[in-house]
Amino acid sequence: MTHETPPDLLVLHAVRTTGYAATMRLADLLGLPATVVEEHLEDARARGWVTEAAFAGDRGWTLTEAGKAHGEEQLAAELDAADARADFERIYRDFLPANEIVGATCTAWQLTELGIGEVPADADAIVAALHEPARLLGELEQRLTAHLARFSGYHRRFGTALAAAATNPAWITGTDRDSAHRVWFELHEDLIATLGIER
């Protein structure tokens, strides 16, 4: 039976996986009312786990070191309560080959956008190269959500980004949208935070 993560931990963890996000983005990401997210963020701020900062004209939340430590402690307890650590370690090993493909593919596109790649990458070829990781992500997500429901949605988001990238390459690595690179980065951060390991 899959485990449902409590809202306070969901909110704190989403601040970590996104790195920096406004309240509304966190609410949209989690499917929670903005008022509930704000309440948990303010509680976390009072405990010294998150801080609000301005960046490029926007305001958003980031995790403190104390918040990171607390979050990892809670995630470890959740993983062990679900008796899923061994399965998650296997899933992470299966994730790594796909992660190498996504990392190399997105880097090639970023270099092309910056005009510093030796051989410019073709956007259509880049999108095509990401379809196999997308397929594998569908399988991995099923295995993950069998234990922890909060891993649901990565496959849908990644697929949505790929579909959009077919006509607008900004969806490959854009930082101003839910791009393929952003979704994959957040999944990777979710996995390493859950397992308490480093990238």
List keywords for this structure.
mainly alpha, 6% strand, 2 strands, 199 residues, two-stranded antiparallel ribbon
Describe this structure in words.
It is built from ten helices and two strands, in the order αααββααααααα. A hairpin with a 2-residue loop joins strand 1 and strand 2. The chain has a two-stranded antiparallel sheet with strand order 1-2. It has 199 residues and is mostly helical. Helix content is 67%, strand content 6%. The chain has helices at 7-18, 23-30, 34-46, 65-81, 85-114, 123-129, 131-145, 154-165, 170-173, 180-195; strands at 50-55, 58-63.
Architecture blueprint of SSEs:
Layout: H1 7-18, H2 23-30, H3 34-46, E1 50-55, E2 58-63, H4 65-81, H5 85-114, H6 123-129, H7 131-145, H8 154-165, H9 170-173, H10 180-195
Antiparallel strand pairs: 1-2
Helix pairs in contact: 1-2, 1-3, 1-4, 1-10, 2-3, 5-7, 5-10, 7-8, 8-10
Strand order in the largest sheet? 1-2
DSSP strand tally: 2
How many helical stretches?
A: 10
Spans of at least 5 consecutive residues with low confidence: none
Output the radius of gyration. Answer: 17 Å
Our measurement of the CA-to-CA distance between the termini, rounded to an integer number of angstroms, reads: 29 Å
Q: Per the principal axes of the C-alpha atoms, what is the gross shape? A: globular
**Helix fraction bin:** 55-70%
Structural class: mainly alpha
Major beta sheet, specifics? 2 strands, antiparallel
Mean pLDDT: 95
Order of helices and strands: HHHEEHHHHHHH
